[in-house]
Amino acid sequence: MYPRKILEYMEGFLISKTVFTSCELGVFDVLLAAERPLSAEEISQAVGASLDGMQRLLAACTGLQLLNTHWDNRQVFYSNTEQSRVFLTRSSPLSLYQSIQYSSRTIYLCWHYLTDAVREGRNQYEKAFGVSSKDLFQALYRSDEEMVKFMHLMNSIWNICGKDVVTSFDLTPFKVICDLGGCSGALAKQCTLAYPECTVTIFDLPKVVRVSREHFVTEADQRIGFQEGDFFKDSLPVADLYILARILHDWTDERCIELLCRIYKVCKPGGAVLLVEALLNEDGSGPLTAQLYSLNMLVQTEGRERTGAQYAALMAASGFTNIQHHLTGKIYDAVLGHKET
Ligand code: SAM
């Protein structure tokens, strides 16, 4: 018996760190700019790294199928694979570079305390970053720089799977949409692209709205507006549809119902709420990504990932009816619940 899986799992973090480091050093960016295969010497010089270290890093990236090799005169040259060019270079419209940075600099450090998180049943900001976790988003946004990094993390995935989420139900009847906790506006943009007649108001904390306005949503996005506020305290905009994307997974069941009840009160009759989350199978058997994300929620938030039925129960407890969910086949799924006319 050979414990292949266990050996792979034991060393899985070596793979993550290889990807983090290659991105951080700019290996994929240098190869993109060169427009021709480069030698290890050329890449190490361009990024200011040791030749020996770079040769090993490039070899590992080749093994991970993130780089192609080309042999010429018994010398090896490297180029980006198609996936590396599209997803690992900084300038690509579908870049995951900022997400990888956040995984490397923040999430990885929190996961160092996973054992404590499981023992204590709570997030690990105090140990990982020396900040109080009493107010979750004060801990997450412990500096302006951290907040912007988080916003980039939130932004990138919707360029990849936002369309699937917003089209998993036909949202055409909903013209006035409010994206609660809409952050950088990436999902709002996907809504306005998919539904030419809708307008979207991004409701978020004041400092998030300020940065989103300045750096993420341009004047060209004319159908996207903003409202600053605290969705647990301040009055919410009246809308036909409220989107809660990756919001409820941050909070306990009690807090979720509190928020959903507030939404139910202001939602127009015939309106709806759309939850966007990574849904667990009903028997908890998968998908692995959602199971791992639920551990991540333990380490980083007050919430958890849930099944479609668990989200439906939260919505029903807040007054919503006719609740359905759709799986997209990608990371994030959608649950839609209605307010009766
Ligand atoms: N919906 C976005 C997405 O999926 O990319 C962002 C999800 S992020 C996990 C949670 C968002 O909720 C952040 O933008 C955060 O600033 C916002 N948020 C957290 N607490 C809030 C509050 N009390 N009032 C308003 N927004 C809040």
TrEMBL record:
Keywords: Melatonin biosynthesis, Methyltransferase, S-adenosyl-L-methionine, Transferase. SUPFAM superfamilies: S-adenosyl-L-methionine-dependent methyltransferases (SSF53335), Winged helix' DNA-binding domain (SSF46785). It comes from the Eukaryota. One of its GO terms (molecular function) is acetylserotonin O-methyltransferase activity. Homodimer. Pathway: Aromatic compound metabolism; melatonin biosynthesis; melatonin from serotonin: step 1/2. Pfam families: Dimerisation, Methyltransf_2. This is Acetylserotonin O-methyltransferase. Residues 111-320 form the O-methyltransferase C-terminal domain.
